[in-house]
Amino acid sequence: MNITVNEKDGSRVAVISSDSLIIKNVDDALDLLADVHYNHGCDKMLVRKENIVEDFFELSTRLAGEILQKYTNYQMAIAIVGEFGSYNSKSLNDFIYECNQGKKIVFRSTEEEALEALHSID
């Protein structure tokens, strides 16, 4: 796993990249949050869809809710980047839509869109 910091006008976003799964469960998500916050000084992060276990995108597992609630509680904004159109799930599409209405959790198709959204958060 590699973490780089993207800075713009005083805003710092940790950009996570890896060739393997990074978030497989709630503990992995919390470890990543702690690493980003304490070792990189960021309260915003960008993670690619392919680095998150597929169960996250199956809302019946409740994994997405558990992880994103922890991130909200610890005031960590997160952008998840990827193609989400392949999921044939109305509940997931509704969930993504609702998240995108706020500012702390966003789903975007490109890294550039995700960085723009995260840097716009105060």
UniProtKB/TrEMBL annotation:
DUF4180 domain sequence ranges: 9-118
- From which domain of life does this come? Bacteria
Q: Which InterPro entries match?
A: DUF4180
A matching Pfam family: DUF4180
Protein's name in the database: DUF4180 domain-containing protein
Organism name? Paenibacillus curdlanolyticus YK9
